[in-house]
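Treating backbone geometry as a discrete language has practical consequences that deserve illustration. The amino acid sequence and the backbone structure tokens for this protein are reproduced below.
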Amino acid sequence: MTEPAGRIRTRIYHEDTDAGGIVYHTAYLRFAERGRTELLRSLGHDHHGLRFREGGGFVVRSMVIDYAAAARLDDEVEIETEVADVKGASLVMRQKVMHDGRTLVSMDVRLAFIGAGGRAMRLPAAIRETFNRYPGEGI
């Protein structure tokens, strides 16, 4: 079964957990990064293309994270990603890590678009158009 653009699944492995088999808090950041990357890729904006066609890329500017419950070794989790807000040089992606329909972790991630010199630059028109096509629909 193919997942919608803003949804991926992954299994919890030993590398994701502490000695007790509970997912270590920083592992959720990796899961979220994968979710954001796959959403962008599914919409035609892979990192390589952004860098070479648009002259820049996204970096995390800020995050607000709520850890409600823990995933455990061998669980299968689902990462849901949607674009919540689009500004001139940044956007906010809202993400959830879920297991069996229960939200374990939720986060809002503000991404800035920066050029090769590390300075903020306006979001390319192609990216803005893509995200404006899906307002509030949880891409």
Summary: Residues 27-42 form the longest helix (16 residues). The chain is about 25% helix and 35% strand. The mean pLDDT is 90. The two ends are 17 Å apart (CA to CA).
